[in-house]
Amino acid sequence: MVKKLLLSLLILLLAACTPKATPQPTPSAGQVDAEEQAVYAALIQAMFPAKMVVLMNTTATGVAGNDNTDQTLQYVLKNMHAVSTQTTDSFKARNASAGPLHGDMQLGVPYALLSQDEVTSIFSMNQDGWQVFYERYPDARGILTFSRVGFDAALDQALVYVGNQNQALAGSGHYLLLKKVDGAWIIDQKVMTWIS
Q: Which residue segment(s) compose the domain that 50 sits in?
């Protein structure tokens, strides 16, 4: 009886001394928005350095008209390693439908937002649409499209889509995995999903 009592006390003592996993606090919407802008800014600086950028005003996860986000994401995840389930789930949830980008983002560079109607107008004129585009935006490097950014709970891993079209047959789209190092977002992995 004494052995059972001592064994029970030992088990209770060990259970009390076992470190408990500290749950990660859920990031606020403001934190997520600020980190999303920081990811966009890091991508612009690393991939599209320019005096100004032109962004589509609505998010997308691929080429317009391509509704195979799930299939594309499966391909991307097969070609990336160590992507957190939280990051993937966040990306899927945040990109369940297209959303607007806002003119008050802090991206570290001046930018213009274009609607699909404005793009259609530029490229439907009886002249070279890219010539018209670059006359309006001479410092741009084409038109960028971003998805919403998926994050892990610690906000130190991010998954995002970025597309860039800068001539009729000069464009590409990539999914990028970024990690936060010393407070700055850096590109960890990149998977191309289309090229023209």
A: 28-195
Q: Does any domain span residue 22?
A: no
Assessment of whether the complete model's pTM goes beyond 0.90: no
Tens of pLDDT along 53-86?
999 999 999 876 566 788 999 999 999 999 999 9
Distance between first and last Cα of the chain: 78
* DSSP per-residue string spanning 48-110: ---S-EEEESB--SSSTT---HHHHHHHHHHT-SS--HHHHHHHHHHTSS--B--TT---SS-
- Using alpha carbons, list the distances in angstroms from residue 97 to 94, 147, 168, 181: 8, 10, 27, 30
- Give dist(CA 56, CA 40) in Å, integer: 13
